[in-house]
Amino acid sequence: MTTPFKTILGIETSCDETAVAIIDETGHIHASLVLSQIEEHRAFGGVVPEIAARAHMDHLDTLITAAMDDAGLSFDQLGGVAATCGPGLIGGVMVGMMAGKAIAAARGIPFIAVNHLEGHALTPRLTEAGEGRDLTFPYLLLLISGGHTQILVAEGVGQYKRWATTLDDAAGECFDKSAKIMGLPYPGGPELQAIAATCTDPASALERFPLPRPMVGRKELDFSFSGLKTAVLNHVQKLPEGELSRKDVADLAHAFQTAMADILSERCERALLRFLNEYTPARPTLVVSGGVAANTAIRAALETLCAKHGAAPYAPPISLCGDNAAMIAWAGLERLRAGLTSETGDPLDTKARPRWPLDETAPTRHGAGVKA
Ligand code: KG4
Ligand code: ZN
User: Fold this and answer.
1) 183 C-alpha to center of ligand 2: Å?
2) Model confidence over 170-220: pLDDT tens digits?
3) What is the spatial distance between Cα 229 and Cα 67, in angstroms, rounded to a whole number?
4) Residue 347's CB: how many other CB atoms inside 10 A?
5) Ordered structural domains, the chain, with CATH
6) Which atom of ligand 1 approaches the CA of 120 most closely?
7) What is the DSSP track for 201-266?
8) Backbone angles phi and psi of 288, in degrees to 5
9) What residues does 143 pair with on adjacent strands?
10) Per residue in 1-18, pLDDT tens?
11) Is there a smaller number of Cβ atoms within 10 Å at the N or the C end of the chain?
12) Are 212 and 259 contacting, i.e. CB atoms less than 8 angstroms apart?
């Protein structure tokens, strides 16, 4: 039996979420399941690659079956299988990639190798399609996640220009490490946001805990976050010994989140001005995506910035900011439609890539947390 619209199964296993989704070319999400491994990694304060790979192995088959049941579809009705082939933790990537290849081979449908970052980059086109709209290229993209912090121009499917990356930690990594210093559990980003919201006197919190804004004012667009994290550590070390009070943490979290929002919006403002100048888009759009795009203070700062320059801000719904497989299935569909993956699919000997830049021409930066 065929379905009226091309339907794609997506598989995501590059970090600590096992995710499976089914979408179609109208942007309809038939099923989207995300199984977080947070509990399995929490005791270690971060993701343990070997534990992640084994957990993907344990749960992926069940999740695929559950997603097919949710969608009410059979494998015969799929027009392709897209799986993340990098960048990410290689053991986990291999688990999802091999499952995708096996389904494609068994069913005689195309296998589509997807770059995880392209999944984040194209998410707004999925959600816009779902609303019956089209987000046209080019658009400016701030990609902020646990492993990446980049500014790119999305010129088309498979066509990206990277204008900035981090020279050390990624934004999400800085959230997580700073949260850990404040005694908050892993993953720190959402915890830090929640406690910052309880800060009762934001103005005095900023005075109590002054924090640097590394790279702000610099002409080049890159990011650096390790100094911000160290400054958080210095403040904590100056506080009286013992456990921090709730007020201390709320104030420091607010100061940190404000610094982060300031840094990201200053970097994006420079990039937006360059984008307007070089591309003169009819309807300039600034997209923010990746796990950290769930942060409300950052979303608000970018909205203000866009209003100032007549650009349209775009952030995916929270459920599609973090890692998910709907974005992988959609990126696969876009690649198939654009002819970047042939109708018979990508080769079944496609390799998993721990490092896979979206813009292969951009110079490599040798900092921690820079995987692309
Ligand atoms: O995109 P993602 O799910 O995984 C990667 O590809 O890295 O991003 C995860 C990151 C983590 O660092 C997490 O702390 C951060 O996104 N994050 C947030 C928030 N929600 C998730 N950071 C700040 N505020 C949030 N609300
Ligand atoms: Zn991600």
Assistant:
1) 24
2) 999 999 999 999 999 988 999 999 999 999 999 999 999 999 999 999 999
3) 39
4) 11
5) 7-133+320-359 (3.30.420.40), 139-317 (3.30.420.40)
6) 1
7) -HHHHHHHS----TTTT-SS--B--HHHHHHHHHHHHHSPSSSPPHHHHHHHHHHHHHHHHHHHHH
8) -115, 130
9) 150, 289
10) 456 679 999 999 998 889
11) N
12) yes
DSSP character at residue 74: -
Pocket of ligand 1 (CB under 6 A): 15, 145-147, 172, 175-176, 187-190, 193, 290-292, 294-295, 322-323
- SS3 state of residue 3: coil
Contact status, residue 324 vs residue 21, Cβ threshold 8 Å: yes
Encoding tokens for residue 191? 């915890």
- State in Å: Cα 117 to ligand 1 middle: 14
Task: For residue 296, give the ligand 1 atom closest to its CA.
Answer: 26
Ligand 1 atom 20 nearest Cα: 190
| Centroid of chain to Cα 319 | 11
- Work out whether strand 17-24 and strand 7-12 pair parallel, antiparallel, or are unpaired: antiparallel
Contact (CB, 8 A) for 144 and 121: no
Record the tokens describing residue 361, joined without a space: 């021409």
Residues 286/298, Cβ–Cβ less than 8 Å: no
Surrounding ion ligand 2 within 5 Å at CB are: 145, 323
